[in-house]
Predict the 3D structure of the following.
Amino acid sequence: MATTKLKYSKEEFAEKGNELYESQVREQVEKDNLGKIVAIDIETGAFEVAEDSLGAIEKLRERFPEAQAWFVRIGHRAVHKIGFAGSTEIK
């Protein structure tokens, strides 16, 4: 898989990605995909859902090879967890 040059700062990425997730994507994916990963192109708003980050970005890049992807674990605060810190599920 080719590497895509990032066009935004980490802060801009987070702001755009979170805004798109909350305003457009969340309602469409949350009900049936809890715990899966959604990759969102922060430039187009296009997104793909998969079991893991690699699957989500591969599906998104099939459609948008230059996608500037932001990842969200559906229904959770963080995409990945390190060690055991209890549940990260949002209630």
